[in-house]
């Protein structure tokens, strides 16, 4: 299961993910991202992964795409932080 919460301020678009970024949940996040995220928006885009417990290969690919479209990730857990730094950015 994956819970997706999106908040917006004039300066920031924030996505908070909670749970597992796997299988059908990757598709759900991709669909929400395409519908709601505006590439080229001057606001900072933050994706909070602090409450994500696992990311599969398709999830990694989606996070890499999101990173290329301006998303910055917050991750405090060792596993997710390492995964994001090694496989999902730049």
Question: What features would you describe in this structure?
Answer:
It is a single chain. The longest helix has 14 residues, at 23-36. A four-stranded mixed β-sheet has the order 1-2-3-4, with helices on both faces. The protein has helices at 23-36, 57-68, 78-88; strands spanning 2-8, 12-21, 44-55, 71-74. The protein has 90 residues and is an alpha/beta fold. 41% of the residues lie in helices and 37% in strands. The chain has three helices and four strands.
Summarize the structure.
Helix content is 41%, strand content 37%. It has 90 residues and is α/β, with parallel strands linked by helices.
Mean pLDDT: 91
Strand content: 35-45%
Gyration radius (Cα, Å) is: 12 Å
Classify the secondary structure makeup into a structural class.
Answer: alpha/beta
User: End-to-end distance, in Å?
Assistant: 27 Å
Query: Helical amount among residues, as a percent range?
Result: 40-55%
Q: Report low-confidence residues grouped into runs of 5 or more.
A: none
Question: What is the strand arrangement across the widest sheet?
Answer: 1-2-3-4
- Large-scale geometry: globular
> Biggest sheet: strands, sense, closure?
4 strands, mixed
Give the topology string: H per helix, E per strand.
EEHEHEH
Q: Find the count of extended strands (DSSP E, 2+ residues).
A: 4
Number of helices, where a helix is a run of at least 4 consecutive DSSP H or I residues: 3
